[in-house]
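Annex B. Sample input.
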Amino acid sequence: MSCATCANNSNGSLAKGCKNNGNCSTQGCNKLEVFDWLANMEQPQGVRLFEGVEVRFKNGRKGYYRNQDNLPVNVGDNVVVEVSPGHDVGIVSLTGELVKIQMQKRKIKGPTRDLKKIYRKATPADIDKWIAARGLEFETMHRARTMAIDLGLEMKISDVEYQGDRTKATFYYTADGRVDFRQLIKVMADAFKIRVEMRQIGARQESGRLGGVGSCGRELCCSTWLTDFRSVSTGSARYQQLSLNPQKLAGQCGKLKCCLNYELDSYLEAFKKFPKQDVKLQLKGGYAYHIKTDVFRQMMWFQSKMKDEEFPGPIVGLELDRIWEIIKMNENGDRPKSLKDFQVEEEIVEEPDYDNVDDQDDLGRFDKAFKKRRRPTRGKRRPVQKTNGKKQQVQGKSNKKQAPKGGGAKSSGGNKNARKAKPEGAAKGGSQGKAKGGGKKTRSSRRQGSNNQSKASE
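Annex B, continued. Sample output.
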């Protein structure tokens, strides 16, 4: 995309764009680059090198100049060229015999002496002045847009290009019709103190200058290699059986995509083998009309409509040979009974069976894997449940017998009233406390003993 730092990088670091520093496979990262396939071939003896040199400027703009002083210029060199008025700075993009071919493609006729000449190689002072001018373009473009809006002009200024000597600037704009910008030129010349040139371009030329990425994921064709913009109609989409959706058929410029014409000739050649889209196949008691066409499989689908039937029949796919056979039968006055006799038998591909190994199709197969594990409740207080308005301690499950209410032997022995209230529970609790802890008080026994004391006091 016109990296100015690839060939002239004083820091020795990689360029900001493609990071190849000018060593990519296309010989550069510039727009509309031409591969010089004669670069490794020596010039024949007695043949003078072609004087024409191709020089590129901002956003793919190229010009052809004459190297009358036989300067040793190579691809990537900065040169000062002649313009009217003043001079400009550009980068050499092509030299040698291929320049003659490019001039023929651009319909530049006449001898090379009619071309403007190359003054010299650019000096550091020329390059510094050129870079400073390029740095003013972005701000100048936005100020010019504001001036156009203030004057009520229906135009869009899309790009600004300064000349290398900072004496002139070219403003590229798009508009639906003619625009009277005489007052705008006066305002801009007074504000910027330069000569102003206005140049109207189309929407496709604007996309080619600015660049971008298409819906295919690649860089725009108009900014990389496409030079001629041919008209594109919706018929190109119809022949290729594309949906006539303007959002999908339009490119970055808002017009129909240029790539719709790339494969159009192949489709037109393939459609010569097909009958017309409005063909009707005559049947006994009705007819069959066309539904759709598959160019790649060379098949057409028809749906029958019988006079004695209320609803149309099923859609049947036919090959081209069978369709032409039915058409020939109709021309001879013969009508087939049904299209099923000519139908293509499609092979049904059976999907391989498989078993659900280890519940691999279960939607909840990952629930157990990511389930949080509960930490053991050591030393934590057990929850208390209320039964009949009184608090009751919840005992944990155990293989051993559960200790009943009444506490251990020592806790039950310390309260006589508790013994009278529940003598059986106290005896059982005492015996179990001795069996478990060897006469030592546990938390449950102490807690149960305090409960019994409170009951006895009540």
